[in-house]
User: Which sequence fits this backbone?
C-alpha cells in the first residue's frame, strides 16, 4: 500500500512539474498619433508547437490565457490592424498587461 502511494505521489509531482506554464497576456491596442483605441486589431501568439489568434474589442482591449510551452519561453506576439503597420514583439518580462501603439500606414 505504501509503495502504491509513493508511486502515485511521484507520478503526480512529475506530471505537474512537466506541464506547460500558463500565463495571462492582456492590454490595449491604440493609435500612436491619436492615442484612440483600435478595435478588431488581430493579435497572433506563436511559439514552436503553439499558435493562438484573437482580436481586440471595441475599446482596443484584449486578454488571453496562454500556454508558454516547456520551461516558459517568452511568447512571440504579432499585432495587426487594417491601415496600420504590423508590430512584432516578444512578451514583456515581469508584466502581463501592456499598451501597444500602432503606426498608421502612410
Assistant:
Amino acid at each position: 500500500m505504501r509503495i502504491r502511494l509513493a508511486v502515485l505521489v511521484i507520478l503526480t509531482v512529475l506530471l505537474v512539474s512537466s506541464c506547460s506554464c500558463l500565463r495571462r497576456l492582456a492590454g490595449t491596442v491604440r493609435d500612436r498619433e491619436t492615442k484612440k483605441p483600435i478595435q478588431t486589431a488581430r493579435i497572433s501568439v506563436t511559439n514552436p508547437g503553439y499558435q493562438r489568434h484573437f482580436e481586440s474589442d471595441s475599446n482596443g482591449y484584449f486578454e488571453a490565457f496562454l500556454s508558454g510551452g516547456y520551461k516558459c519561453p517568452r511568447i512571440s506576439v504579432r499585432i495587426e490592424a487594417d491601415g496600420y503597420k504590423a508590430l512584432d514583439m516578444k512578451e514583456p518580462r515581469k508584466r502581463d498587461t501592456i499598451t501597444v501603439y500602432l503606426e498608421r500606414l502612410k
